[in-house]
Amino acid sequence: MECTECVRIFEDIGAALNAPVDTEELLGNIARRLVERFHVAGCLIRLLSRDRRTLEELASYGLSERFLSKGPVDPERSVHEALEGKLVVIPDCRTDPRIQYPAAHAEEGFITVINVPLATRGQVVGVMRLYAKEARSFSDQDLEVLQVVASFCASAVVHAMFHKVLRHINKTVRSSLDLSERLRAMVQLIAEDLRIKGCFIQLMEPSGVFSRRSFSTGLSQEFLDKAASHSQAILVEVLAGSVCAVLDATADPRIAFGQEAAREGVASMLFLPLLLGQKTMGLMVLCTHRPYELSRDELSLLKSIADEGALAIQNALTYAAMKRQYDTLVDDFRHWVDQSGGIFPLTPS
Predict the structure, then answer these.
(1) How deeply is 22 buried, as exposed, middle or buried, from its count of CB atoms within 10 A (0-12, 13-18, 19+)?
(2) What pTM does this model have?
């Protein structure tokens, strides 16, 4: 590929990234441009599921519905190397054992396949595949261009994930005034939308300590029992209103349960105070499958989510207090009516 062709590709990708469309349409546009510029038969972009056991279709171009619906894709079998961050060229997909559905590929006439990891800051979130109907070789420059494009796609996907979870949280915290329902829904949404290992929230007790009871998803009770007790170093940061990021929970000295984190499959942990003004309402902890270093924008969005969580807690507590007062007044009124023999006639006179 000549330099001028590289420039045209990046111009195409830049135009796609700047278009006012949603993420799936954006990636579909990128897939189309890659097919046209690299003269291949098709392109497929898949995201890794939250449990990292399957790859879910996000966008494609040039592929038949029959091929796309061939069955669930096992990442360990079909794109294991790509999920380790390696670009892989498969010269003949009809016979290569790394291809999960060789017959489906043969029916479509595909021969050469390229697997490109969608990676951002060390975190692989999915895979981009290009399919050619002839034996193809690609230059180092071609592969470098594909890796750069894949990194753009990964960044767009992750950016969309964070904005999506914020929208969902905004909607969820207004759907119920029950505190337990709100917090369970929050941790579930955060884990699913961000495709992380798990999430839990602890409330601040009136005594000024975090409750050992947590609202969680994706994490075992054995791990939560350990994780609910925080080191002094983490508490100092959180109680001061700061976010505490732990890149490697299995080795960081601030984490006293490193072995349990390793057994649980937790790599990075992020501790976010739930602040309402200067008051700490609770603590939200995010746990990832792989080490992940947040960007400034992502951290800002997570702080906004934490702010929504703090407000949801305060509103739910206020509602619960008002409901208790109302119930007490109703009980007192009924008791007074019973004692006075009733003040309203039961039947018309």
Answers:
(1) exposed
(2) 0.72
Q: How far apart, in whole angstroms, are the C-alpha atoms of residue 283 and residue 306?
A: 9
Structure tokens that stand for 348 in this block: 């018309």
Average pLDDT estimate for 207-228: 89
Low-confidence winner among 49-58, 103-112, 197-206, 247-256 (lowest mean pLDDT): 49-58
The CA–CA distances, whole Å, from 108 to 65, 94, 128, 157, 302 equal: 11, 10, 18, 28, 43
**Residue 262 CA to chain centroid, in angstroms?**
20
- Burial letters 150-189, b for 16+ CB under 10 A, else e: bbbbbbbbbbbbbeebbebbeebbeeebebeebbbbbbbb
Contacts of 160 (CB under 8 A, 6+ apart): 22, 23
- E-strand ranges in 11-103 read 42-48, 55-61, 88-90
Task: Give strand pairing partners of 89.
Answer: 114
- Domains belonging to the chain, first-starting first, are 3-160 (3.30.450.40), 173-317 (3.30.450.40)
For residues 75 and 55, the answer to whether their CB atoms sit within 8 Å is: yes
Q: What amino acid occupies position 202?
A: Q
